[in-house]
Amino acid sequence: xxxxxxxxxxxxxxxxxxxxxxxxxxxxxxxxxxxxxxxxxxxxxxxxxxxxxxxxxxxxxxxxxxxxxxxxxxxxxxxxxxxxxxxxxxxxxxxxxxxxxxxxxxxxxxxxxxxxxxxxxxxxxx
Length: 126
Ligand SMILES: [Zn+2]
Fold this sequence. Notes:
Bound molecules: zinc ion
Radius of gyration: 16 Å
Shape: globular
Number of helices: 0
Strand content: 35-45%
Order of helices and strands: EEEEEEEE
């Protein structure tokens, strides 16, 4: 699956693009990462999908030593992080080694098996 270059939809890695998309409820302002046709906070259906910057801070980290399938075994061990995006949602991503809880990160994308997944790297120090 490849992204449609004429699409005005924000790039979304779960749909073959290289970006993180999220939705904001126009009625109550609730932010959600997982795509739903409604707002889980107020039940409204008027959602604005937007492109996230990919910037955030590490909330949690773990190292996966045993891959979930034979196809992915070549990647192990690999780091998986929960990251608090600056837009206000939390997402799961692969991550560079050596990050600490609270570290500021940017998000790139890299191959993992047959798909490309979010991959967090330390933000350059200003
Ligand atoms: Zn709402």
